[in-house]
Known about the structure:
Blueprint: H1 5-17, H2 21-30, E1 41-46, E2 49-55, E3 60-65, H3 73-85, E4 89-94, H4 95-100, H5 102-114
Parallel strand pairs: 3-4
Antiparallel strand pairs: 1-2, 2-3
Amino acid sequence: MPAKSSTLHPHSKRLRRDQTDAERKLWMRLRDRQLNGLKFRRQQPVGRYVVDFFCPESRLVIELDGGHHTLQIEADQRRTDFLTKAGYRVLRFWDNDVLSDTEAVLQKIVEELNTPHPPLSLKGRGYRKDNPLPQGARVKKRVPSPPPSPSEGRGKKKPLTLALSLKGRGNHGGKR
Length: 176
């Protein structure tokens, strides 16, 4: 069951602290932009879920599943469906695969990162072939700014006045 939004942050902090061996091993290879120079986050709130690893630049979510996930296949599928509909790509690996063949797991992640992300569908968002803008979207016509008045003169800029206030900032002029 997904966590409530008010509890996601403390929950994700606890998950970062209490990592599994597989999460720790994969994190050592994802952190500090080691993979394709991309930034990964761990135990990151995304929508109403906390995902194991997340790359915001490529919108890639990586989930590691332990033995207990065999009992929650439907919940994992709902989670994957939610993330996919929100525009994220989701990769799932068994903890055992990460622990026994980390290089193969990393290779699959690199392959996914090198695959272009499909564009989001506009279907269901008011898109019509005869009007590519979503329903209700407005095109603002740019109104040119009026030319400067003759009294201002062309090319002359008004002087910039800057006022500084140190009020309430303490006494920094004397001895400390």
